[in-house]
Amino acid sequence: xxxxxxxxxxxxxxxxxxxxxxxxxxxxxxxxxxxxxxxxxxxxxxxxxxxxxxxxxxxxxxxxxxxxxxxxxxxxxxxxxxxxxxxxxxxxxxxxxxxxxxxxxxxxxxxxxxxxxxxxxxxxxxxxxxxxxxxxxxxxxxxxxxxxxxxxxxxxxxxxxxxxxxxxxxxxxxxxxxxxxxxxxxxxxxxxxxxxxxxxxxxxxxxxxxxxxxxxxxxxxxxxxxxxxxxxxxxxxxxxxxxxxxxxxxxxxxxxxxxxxxxxxxxxxxxxxxxxxxxxxxxxxxxxxxxxxxxxxxxxxxxxxxxxxxxxxxxxxxxxxxxxxxxxxxxxxxxxxxxxxxxxxxxxxxxxxxxxxxxxxxxxxxxxxxxxxxxxxxxxxxxxxxxxxxxxxxxxxxxxxxxxxxxxxxxxxxxxxxxxxxxxxxxxxxxxxxxxxxxxxxxxxxxxxxxxxxxxxxxxxxxxxxxxxxxxxxxxxxxxxxxxxxxxxxxxxxxxxxxxxxxxxxxxxxxxxxxxx
Length: 517
Hints:
With 517 residues, this protein is an alpha/beta fold. The protein has 15 helices and eleven strands. The protein has an eleven-stranded mixed β-sheet, with helices on both faces. The longest helix is centred in the last third of the chain and has 24 residues. The two termini are 34 Å apart.
């Protein structure tokens, strides 16, 4: 094996080494598994990884390398190990949603996002811990125990994609897949000090993502850097006939946003395998003012008087940097923001109660026999299979959809959801190119510290709006308070991921090491 490097390489550098024959895909996998053992990523330590098969994964990587010898292009992610959240279907590893309900379940089909990663040479190395069925903001709701933050194992990594964010933060992988319903990629990315991206609803296929709330769910990416996230998003984005909500909107070359290029170059059509070796970016430096001409909105509702002083200070520093990079910062208003949590926790549980009705002990998953017949089997199976938070949300969702309450709750929540979407539309139609806000109200908190469900739900206060409106959003590290990461959030118009990455690249470079101290 090639000599191990002390630090994880970026996805771009790793793939370039593999394409140049300087390093093999199998070497990269062995390095990643070695790093996982060093940080004790399994149940005995950080509890980041739920399922992996090192021997099979390495053998497949070696076989793939033999088959691809002499190939013109090995892909944008050639030989790059990737961690995958446990609610995204894979052929070779279980997909259990960190729930006893699906314990041992291996999917007969694979998520489109996974298929596209593999087409670009990426190597799926493991399935990561998460809040059960993606319901949670701390990763404490997993049936297999909480994942822990690699910065401080006594702290939560955020949720529900806590395992994926922690895998990147621990240096096991440079890219991981997560999922978002109310902030479950961006919030753990912020708490772990990495980059998390939620695309526009419809930009990435949901085929193979176990449904929680179908009008909100999305697959997102977590990267060590903005560039890692941009490359991964470029690979998995695009129309998929297997997903009825998938958009056929053109996919830009997101990597070009680093150069401040406008208009964005479009990804080569008719193939998901972008020809990375022949169509890579020109080797030139970004302009001195990469955000010249851009207007960045600062929504006053995201900077309330109650906002943690250290979070406010780091956000203000970032806004100053955006100005130095050529952008104009303008205060804007999204007046219905304070209703987002109430709306989200009506719509999401309502859809969850419908989606999770399929887990009845009959077709797949857990089955608990009962002496009381079919109904008894339903009740005993669901009682044994679902944890407390999933049960709570199913009950809440069933209530708001019931006769006499549908109009008062669910229908009204949908109307307010439209108002929240209109707020974003009006701001972006008024010349604003992107918004900048905090990602989370504060840094990571101790495991077990938050026991009140409503207090836990407030962790999504700055992220849920983009899920309700369908806008793309990114979290990236902007500094630390008491040694713990704080994330800044960039929100863009629908299918405006390119502008979002343009701001993210520029801000990340401007902050440099200040983003991690």
